[in-house]
């Protein structure tokens, strides 16, 4: 049985699209999605330098599409060359921010402690973290994927306080399925997303955990999204490659509304 939570379809553009391309894609998305189906929320996460042009008039400003960032730094301001604060994102305005993506953990050596500080800073500043977790192929083949992911959740959310489930989103993204064309099955996704929900109940209690959206990510596309969304603990998708084309992203949003 699918969940009753509002579905979230979020596009992670990663390091793609310069200012002009970002503006064009935002305009194409607004045209492709004049209305968002009931029970679905949509958000796009462009590179930091593109946030403003995507948020402006002509971009998502006068549309129901929401804006997210791909990264943040937890300090409020100061000598942190190259970083972006919560308040800076808020001023764009940004409503969501991806943290803990496996690409940040692997290539930029971000730790659970870093993600924990980012989660706390975002929540304090009124931006909803899209907290990513997910195992490597090696961990899955060893049968340790559930233990690994629930440990990531516990470490990353240690001491995080929220008063309602809409202050946090989790994205389960098995690393072996990201950008590989190899997807988890819907049952694989449910197994881990269900375990994530049980961990969220332990941390935040049943009522809050029931309101937290848990997304699947990893080669999600129009052809396979419906299978994931049938599962009780999968509340949407974090989409990479298929979010870079307005027609495929819009098709996924439409499927989420069916
Ligand atoms: O990493 C992802 C989204 O954050 C998934 O990327 P792909 O959809 O390209 O596999």
TrEMBL record:
Q: Which one Pfam family would you cite for this protein?
A: TIM
Keyword field:
Cytoplasm, Gluconeogenesis, Glycolysis, Isomerase
Stated EC number for the protein is 5.3.1.1
- Which annotated residues bind substrate? 12-14, 179, 219, 240-241
Q: Which InterPro entries match?
A: Aldolase_TIM, TIM_sf, TrioseP_Isoase_bac/euk, Triosephosphate_isomerase, Triosephosphate_isomerase_AS
Reactions catalysed, as given in the entry: D-glyceraldehyde 3-phosphate = dihydroxyacetone phosphate
Any Gene Ontology CC annotation: cytosol
Share an example GO biological-process annotation for this protein: glycolytic process
Q: Does the keyword Isomerase apply?
A: yes
Gene Ontology terms, MF aspect: triose-phosphate isomerase activity
Role description: Involved in the gluconeogenesis. Catalyzes stereospecifically the conversion of dihydroxyacetone phosphate (DHAP) to D-glyceraldehyde-3-phosphate (G3P).
PANTHER family named among the record's database cross-references = TRIOSEPHOSPHATE ISOMERASE
- Subunit structure as annotated in this protein's UniProt entry: Homodimer.
State what protein this is by name.
Answer: Triosephosphate isomerase
Source organism per UniProt:
Enorma massiliensis
The gene coding this protein:
tpiA
